[in-house]
Predict the structure of DUF3109 family protein.
Amino acid sequence: MPLLIVRYLLLYMEPVMLEIGDALVSLDVIEKEFICNLEACLGACCIEGDAGAPLEEEERQKLKDILPVIWDDLLPAAQSVIREQGVAYIDQEGDVVTSIVNGKDCVFTCYGANGMCYCAIEKAYKEGRIDFYKPISCHLYPIRTKKYSGFTAVNYNRWKICKAAEVLGRKEGVKVYQFLKEPLIRKFGEVWYNELCEVAIEYERQKAQDD
């Protein structure tokens, strides 16, 4: 068990974050329930918002490398944007993010016959045409990570378009960190994820005792 399981506010004795390796994890990650419900939201997270998906620097180069393979899958408007500014840009917060169409749609968003959004990158990966699944920020959503000096913040980003996912998660009893096992391991490693699970179980045990 990690030396530091939960940081406490001494005045109120309320847990505020979990320290796992060099990451500080919001309690929402282990307390809230979540299962993506694409039939309800139709992939709205790919087309809502005012900026593209955050990218790590190596991911920007990877998107450039795979662009010829997925080019014909992209919408004409997305192709036009990419020709003008490339696969990514710097947003107002200074972060590298995927380029967007009409001020909101990710350029890698495509649509199925039923109006459901899908990721052209993920589609090509599943078809065996490329070896890159999709940006880790997309894979991790609704978790958002932010790198600071000495640690990485790991937070659950609640958004009204994901309300159906919260309802489904509560129905099935699946926590955010459980639903996002694969991308969390991809980001932080299996040892880190197993430690998170141990801490989550211990936290719930202590919480039950206090109740």
In short: Residues 1-14 have pLDDT under 50 and may be disordered.
